[in-house]
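Support request, priority: normal
Reporter: lab tech (M.K.)
Component: structure prediction queue

Hi team, I submitted a job for Protein arginine N-methyltransferase from Cyprinus carpio yesterday, and the status page still shows it as pending. I've pasted the exact input below so you can check whether something in the sequence is tripping the parser. The sequence length should be 684 residues. Please let me know if I need to resubmit or if it's stuck on your end.
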Amino acid sequence: MKTFCGRANPTTGALDWVEESEEYDYHQEIARSCYADMLHDKDRNEKYYQGIRAAVSRVKARGERVVVLDIGTGTGLLSMMAVTAGADYCYAIEVFKPMAQAATCIVERNGFSDKIKVINKHSTEVTVGPDGDMQERANILVTELFDTELIGEGALPSYEHAHMHLVQADCEAVPHRATVYAQLVESDMLWKWSQLQPIEVDGNKLLPPPAVVKCAGAPSVCDIQLSQVPPESFTPLGPICTMFRVDFSKPVSSAAQSYTAQFKAQTSGRAQVVLSWWDIDMDPDGNIVCTMAPSWNYSDPHTYPWRDHWMQSVYFLPAEENVSEGEELNLIISHDDYSLWYSLTHSEQNDVKVAPFRPCCTCQAHLVWTRPRFGELNDEQRTESYVNALRSILKPDSVCLSVSDGSLLPIFAYLLGSKKVRRPFFFRVKSFISCSQVLHTNSLKHGVQLLGIRPEQLSLADLEGNQISVLMGEPYFSTSLLPWHSLFFWYCRTAVAQLLHPSATILPRAATLYIIAVEFQDLWRIRAACGTCEGFDVSPMDEMIQRSLDYRESLEAEPHPLWEYPCRALTKPRPVLTFDFTQCVPEQPVNSDGTVAFTGRGHCHGVALWMEYQLTEDITVSMGLTKPVREEGACEWNPHRKQGVFFFRSVREMSGDGRENLSYNLTFEPHTGDIKMNFSVTEP
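Reply from support: The job had stalled in the queue. We restarted it manually and it finished. Here are the results:
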């Protein structure tokens, strides 16, 4: 049986549905899973173990036989903890077949097959009775069904069903309860991820469309490593509020509900963003707590337990609101069965009704532009670089064509050239509505024409008989996942080669792929083998993940926003491939190989890759490192684009004295637009 998988195609700028073997989807799901990250989360594992021991003790103290239901067992770790703590029997439910098979193997290897039954079903399909999956209802419910938003993986419906059909009325639950916290803040940095800001271009102010300003934005949560958002980048307008609690030991409802936290504004400002996270109490008394609070909420930030499977959430209010110090405010959280959203009212607005359904985008822009893309469009320094580059190349008779998704470059060109730039164009259909709104709001529809055709379909007639004198792009394409996927710009340039004026200017004129070997502070955990976890052998899971990585993923880089994941450079940045946009895409592959010396001491976890675009001879913009690497190796990364990361299978400790080298071999395949790569550590 075959399966269809979406893969970014740099040669067409599209997301192609490629036929793969049925094993591909299976292997990719395992390779990119968070199982290793969870098992490396020592704080989580210890708290669960403590909570399970306490729950088993409470049930035994009542003189009852201990029967545990473990929903979402994964590796079977929590079930093995329960049996070790004294449980008489455990039903371990896992819906993902490969993981259920791994759990069965792990349970057997650790000698618990007689006490743990792995059930490969969704919990709502499990039956109880003499002929059922479970012989009896459980009196301890153990689960790990949570995501960054707490309920996004369907925790509420699963708990609701379990209490009705699978557990006893007086059951113990681990975790016992969850508490959701929130803080209302003002943050220009974060708000720029949600709303298009006015942009200054050569004395002209480009205004965002009213439909975008009034839009509630994308409905999905923005989950990030909030610990990497510096406290100085936001101003708290109120205290950290307890929004609501869920007691998992009692019947749970998945019905939509709302809760309100009332408080006085601590300072005057603009209410824009809600920062949110949750805690889980593993016991009824709240003595065993696992918190998702960001590091800056700890009295000692160094004790913060890093994890990537649970992060923190950023919610954007439907509209920015001014608040005054001392003003009574109501912060309202609402949820359905899978998602949360926030709203704000003032104390005098008693008649304001809470939206029964989560807000959604009505302007289309939030469906086209991701939150990092909004941040990129609002980046003043970046805008200045492009404006300066355009100013240096535009001429009174320039005929411009722009190739990028949802780009403002053609508008910049028109504003800079006024009547000198005749008619900038772009043709990406996906961003048509958003761009049209910007043009209409700023009365520029007469100066910029939108063409809904692909580059290979473009003709001189579409250009009113004029050859292109300036071909420009950021480049940015919504289908791009890895840095080199934006090379679609190069393929577009090649497609319109016959329409270019002999002296045409290409912006950017070139792109360069850079590499740097790094030691990650924490990100290495998502790929590191576990071996044993809390005394249990989970190596079958390591083997399963490695097999899936070897299927294809270990030969590829994967995208990560490295501003969220601190790392140290162990080599100097090295340019490895340059793509000359003034020329057409070559017919033959382009290869680059060589070595770069390790100059930093530390553990080499992998290689980071990014693109830098040479707009003009003296203006370059980086999609990776934004500043030179500091002496101690600290890196600052572009927060608007994801960089590529190639993880090494095994970690090597580098002396940093120049004896070890990073060897690389990269090949650009023009027919696929992809880059094949291989990295290794060598010694002389």
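The two ends are 48 Å apart (CA to CA). Confidence is low (pLDDT under 50) at residues 419-430. Let us know if anything else looks off. Ticket resolved.
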